[in-house]
């Protein structure tokens, strides 16, 4: 299993797509940081230094609140569907004939990668936020104090979304189909559902992830919706991700690789 | 002789199509077996069933009694080179092999060794997307060899290779056999494999047509060899031939073929009868004729399957097949 995960890491490291994806996430996070500070005008026309706990938390969690978790989701989906797109799955199944073990290695690898992506964005938020704060006379220590409260939840959520991505990709092995489904659901489908049924939010992956991240606010589209507590959210996310992966493994087990 | 690979009553149904039907054969240990048949005859499907990539509808395919999926670190026992397309184009050749090595606990030192072996050491750091078809074939071979397997399965490895490449491949396969490894190599051209294989397994439309040693097949084919003669005096030649105990048949208005004749015999014979000759060709390579005869008119000429007359002389007792709807 460890060998399989190490091999998966090498596979990912040696192709361009994950790097591009991480790069785009970092750039977007940079824009979120800039927006948080520069866009925060007071009524008098000057800039307000974010100081409240919530504002700082939002900044650190920008990767999440800026929907950075979507990158973890796509990463997970790409990690598995790229094998089918380039037919490398033939070699992978020759090396690892037990197909559930193949999916398992993808799940573990993607979860770790998701956490690494979260870490990357957090470091960026800390450095970017710290520099901006200091330049404008704010207190950097206030930001640092938020780390214990925000970091674990964010690592967890990114990992959970990456697992969900692998789960979706194991069923929709066609890369385009998997990506369109992911983006379609999280950008359009969920918004429509939640607008129609507010109470559904807590059951959606975003709502569950929101709960798991331990971020207290569950706002979406202007409203604030009830969410589960963090462990319920975590379990729900795992149920989605692993449930899909289980279905995917079952389908894969019977699939002819021609 | 022990078998490296055993295929027993193997069958595969794709929807309403029976791609492989009650196919049985064995690959002997330490020998090179050519797996021959026209395109679409079920070779690739059979190999993929052996390797657990395609599910088996009926029968069994095993390596020393074990299914591929039940082998511990299978690529250390069975190396397979299946098709030239299954690489990530932006991954470097060396990295591709490393991912495989890492997953199977094979030391990285093997990566350089195998690249050297297949002649790709110079392009180890190049991305596979820039590789020619021939280079991909070699990288496939390198992948297959990585785990130092004792059994090799090669699916049409000659595709995309230039004549030098094919020559190299032959040497490579013979070298594997000299190390005591068993090789199952598929091809749709017998001529490509004729100099390489010890045994042949020929299939057509998913069924076994013949399992035999190449020597037995050649002996059988040998009865069809002879000389092709073109002459403006074809009728006089025929008369002369009728006076001697040789078989012959006319294949064109000015051409006939004499069974089993040699130039040493026919030259003086023609001179003695003062017959003008335009062309005198030693007919060879009729192994291919046998192959074509076996694989083409299979259904029409031999509806009873491989157990009927045509291929019966080739049957090896220990591998008595059970193919065909007999």
Write the layout of secondary structure elements.
The complex is a heterodimer of chains A (258) and B (326).
Chain A: H1 2-13, H2 17-38, H3 53-60, H4 62-65, H5 69-85, H6 89-95, H7 99-135, H8 140-145, H9 147-171, H10 175-196, H11 205-212, E1 219-220, E2 223-224, H12 230-253
Antiparallel strand pairs in A: 1-2
Helix pairs in contact in A: 1-7, 2-5, 2-7, 5-7, 5-9, 5-10, 7-9, 7-12, 9-10, 9-11, 9-12, 11-12
Chain B: E1 3-14, E2 17-28, E3 32-36, H1 43-50, E4 58-63, E5 78-81, H2 93-103, H3 109-117, H4 133-145, E6 151-155, H5 163-178, E7 182-187, H6 190-193, E8 199-204, E9 207-213, H7 214-222, E10 226-230, H8 234-242, E11 248-252, E12 255-259, H9 263-273, E13 279-283, H10 287-295, H11 298-301
Parallel strand pairs in B: 3-7, 3-8, 5-6, 6-7
Antiparallel strand pairs in B: 1-2, 1-4, 8-9, 10-12, 10-13, 11-12
Helix pairs in contact in B: 2-3, 3-4
């Amino acid at each position: 299993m460890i060998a399989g995960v190490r091999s998966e890491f090498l596979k990912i490291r040696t192709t361009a797509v994950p790097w591009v994806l991480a790069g785009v996430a970092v750039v977007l996070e940079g824009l979120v940081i800039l927006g948080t500070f520069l866009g925060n005008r007071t009524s008098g026309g000057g800039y307000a230094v974010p100081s409240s706990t919530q504002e700082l938390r939002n900044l650190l969690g920008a990767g999440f609140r800026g929907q950075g978790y979507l990158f973890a989701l796509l990463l997970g989906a790409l990690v598995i569907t790229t094998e089918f797109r380039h037919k490398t799955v033939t070699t992978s199944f020759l090396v690892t004939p037990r197909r559930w073990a193949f999916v398992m290695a993808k799940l573990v690898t993607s979860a770790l990668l998701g956490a690494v992506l979260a870490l990357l964005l957090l470091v960026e938020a800390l450095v970017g936020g710290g520099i901006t704060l200091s330049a404008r006379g704010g207190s950097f220590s206030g930001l640092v104090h938020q780390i214990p409260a925000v970091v674990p939840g964010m690592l967890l959520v990114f990992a959970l979304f990456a697992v969900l991505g692998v789960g979706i990709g194991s069923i929709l092995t066609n890369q385009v189909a998997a990506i369109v489904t992911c983006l379609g659901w999280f950008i359009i489908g969920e918004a429509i559902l939640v607008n129609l049924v507010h109470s559904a939010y807590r059951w959606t992956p975003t709502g569950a992830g929101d709960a798991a991240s331990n971020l207290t606010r569950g706002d979406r589209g202007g409203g604030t919706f009830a969410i589960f507590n963090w462990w319920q959210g975590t379990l729900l996310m795992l149920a989605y991700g692993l449930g899909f992966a289980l279905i995917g493994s079952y389908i894969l087990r019977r699939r002819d690789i021609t | 002789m022990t078998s490296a690979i055993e295929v027993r009553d193997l069958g595969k149904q794709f929807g309403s199509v029976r791609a492989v039907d009650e196919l049985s054969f064995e690959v002997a240990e330490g020998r090179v077996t050519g797996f021959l048949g026209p395109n679409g005859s079920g070779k690739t499907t059979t190999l993929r069933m052996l390797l657990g990539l395609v599910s088996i509808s009926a029968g069994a395919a095993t390596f020393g009694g074990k299914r591929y999926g039940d082998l511990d670190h299978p690529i250390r026992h069975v190396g397979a080179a299946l098709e030239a397309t299954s690489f990530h184009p932006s991954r470097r050749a060396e990295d591709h092999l490393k991912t495989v090595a890492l997953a199977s606990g094979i030391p990285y030192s093997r990566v350089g060794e195998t690249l050297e072996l297949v002649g790709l050491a110079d392009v180890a750091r190049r991305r596979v997307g820039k590789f020619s078809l021939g280079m991909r074939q070699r990288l496939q071979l390198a992948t297959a060899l990585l785990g130092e397997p004792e059994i090799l399965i090669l699916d049409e490895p000659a595709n995309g290779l230039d004549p030098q490449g094919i020559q190299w491949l032959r040497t490579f396969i013979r070298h594997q056999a000299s190390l005591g490894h068993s090789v199952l190599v598929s091809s749709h051209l017998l001529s490509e494999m004729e100099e390489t294989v010890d045994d042949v397994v020929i299939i057509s439309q998913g069924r076994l047509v013949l399992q035999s040693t190449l020597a037995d097949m050649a002996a059988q084919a040998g009865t069809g060899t002879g000389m092709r003669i073109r002459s403006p005096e074809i009728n006089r030649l025929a008369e002369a031939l009728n006076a001697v105990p040789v078989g012959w048949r006319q294949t064109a208005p000015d051409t006939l073929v004499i069974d089993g004749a040699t130039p040493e015999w026919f030259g003086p014979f023609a001179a003695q009868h003062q017959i003008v000759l335009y062309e005198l060709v030693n007919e060879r390579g009729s192994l291919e004729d046998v192959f074509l005869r076996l694989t083409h008119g299979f259904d029409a000429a031999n509806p009873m399957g491989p157990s009927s007359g045509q291929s019966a002389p080739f049957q090896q007792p220990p591998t008595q097949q059970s193919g065909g709807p007999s």
